[in-house]
């Protein structure tokens, strides 16, 4: 590995941006197959129903919501003083939300995920405001969350 300088504080690292955008692919695929019947037919035939439309949005959306709990847990390791307990406690909320709220049928699950990602964005902003998340965090999270919400919403049209 070569020693490369880290980006200036507040500047979004390219790796975070590229991997964040790559993580949108299943959401975009789910939205596309939910909105385009011919693509859905192809997807179900080639990949199976689990990887198409509302189903891929539910499966992948649940996984990523739980994954984001782990990200917040990592940020909680930076907490000091009175913020330690709340930072760790709040970090598990997205995973618990997914566990308890997703699963009430395909449409109801998508609605629960929409609320979950909205709540996650609030937590992102809180961890950022407490300086537990990197300075660039909200520059990444706001557009990614907007795209995820649009993709999930496509399944409800």
TrEMBL record:
UniProt entry keywords in alphabetical sequence: Membrane, Transmembrane, Transmembrane helix
Domain of life where this protein originates: Bacteria
Keyword Transmembrane attributed: yes
Iron listed as a keyword: no
Residues passing through the membrane, by range: 15-39, 51-76, 82-103, 110-130, 136-156
Listed name of the protein: Uncharacterized protein DUF3429
Organism for this UniProt entry: Rhodovulum bhavnagarense
């Amino acid at each position: 590995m070569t020693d490369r300088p880290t980006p200036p504080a507040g500047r979004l690292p390219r790796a975070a941006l590229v991997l964040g955008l790559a993580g949108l692919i299943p959401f975009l695929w789910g939205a596309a197959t939910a909105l385009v019947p011919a693509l859905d037919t192809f997807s179900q035939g080639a990949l199976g129903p689990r990887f198409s439309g509302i189903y891929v949005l539910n499966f992948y959306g649940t996984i990523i919501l739980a994954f984001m709990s782990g990200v917040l847990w990592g940020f909680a390791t930076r907490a000091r003083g009175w913020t330690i307990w709340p930072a760790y406690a709040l970090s598990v909320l997205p995973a618990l939300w997914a566990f308890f709220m997703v699963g009430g049928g395909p449409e109801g699950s998508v609605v629960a995920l929409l609320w979950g990602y909205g709540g996650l964005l609030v937590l992102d902003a809180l961890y950022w405001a407490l300086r537990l998340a990197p300075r660039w965090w909200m520059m990444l999270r706001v557009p990614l969350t907007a795209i995820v919400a649009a993709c999930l919403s496509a399944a409800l049209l």
